[in-house]
Amino acid sequence: WLSQAALWSEWLHVGELTATEPCQVLEVNADACAQAFMGNRVVGTLASEYCRCFHACLAAAKPPMAEWPNDIEVQFTGFGDIVSTMTRESRINIAMVSSHMVEAKAGFLQSSAATDQLRAELLDEVSAGKSVLVLAPNGDLERV
Prior knowledge:
Elements lengths: L4 H4 L21 H8 L3 H20 L18 H6 L3 H19 L6 H15 L5 E3 L5 E3 L1
Antiparallel strand pairs: 1-2
Helix pairs in contact: 5-6
């Protein structure tokens, strides 16, 4: 991400960024994104809570606990970090969706009683507040 903070807060870009190798840039309109989120009650609720949690982490990201935020990074705002600060219900919803996405990716042919049991145990941990389960960038489940 570059300037993720601009999606969840009022953000002022300072300076200039130059790519050191060929890359692609995708511009996301924050207002249009927010409107799309609100088109679905569950997604809108999760996005609103994610925004509040991100903003709280953004406001707390300052010395001596963290480096000052910039367009490249806001410390302690990784997806798992933010989800960890969300409500229990939201953490459970995110864990269930992440689990279903991994299951769909793997296909039902690879599903076994052992993997189903492991997935159920992970979801039980999330429900008990012992861990957080998110979808990692590589598409696997990640326990936080």
